[in-house]
User: Fold this.
Amino acid sequence: MISKDQRFRRRWVLACSLGIPIGFAVGQAISFGMGFTTGSAKIWAMGFIIGPGITGMVVGIAQWLIIRGHALPAHRWLVVTSISWAAGHGVTVFVGNAVYGVVNLALWPTANLAAVWTVSGVVSGALSGAIGGVLVGLAQGWVLRERKWTSHHWIQSTSLAWAIGHAFINVVNLTAVGVVGSALSWVIYGLVYGTITSRQIPSQNR
Assistant:
């Protein structure tokens, strides 16, 4: 028999598995739409910030629908998730590109090209994702702490989820997977994220 905690966690995992790929698709569409429509460098830069913010908003809505029974303030949860997701995305891109370049240069003379790219993708994704995840975990943990949840465990699990997720996405991006494969990879990202973080959420019935 499935316990109430298990049902609650399954709903959380499902919400993340759907919210993250949908949020990513919407955010990317808005970000690229802004850039391609105007061709302005400033608009492209704005889209780079707004797009991930929209992604965070969609993810926040999906998550809040599951945890609203804890009487968490919806506006606060959505705002911090949106802002921190945008900030985390910016960090992963900046740090990830820097680390990718360093690892590439370090391995280039000693390994074949495919191996260099794969290792660089995993290392840069894991490191940059871990840092970006800390930002999201800190922001959401600030809201969760009001309900006396253990915020540092939330930060750790979010950081771990982002690290694994971004390392996986980087490897997927090295292969020609197409639109369907890319969408599936973000579903898997959401599944990993939801599974890892679900352990830190007390069910509504505790």
Notes: Residues 4-38 form the longest helix (35 residues). Residues 31 and 48 are 6 Å apart (CA to CA).
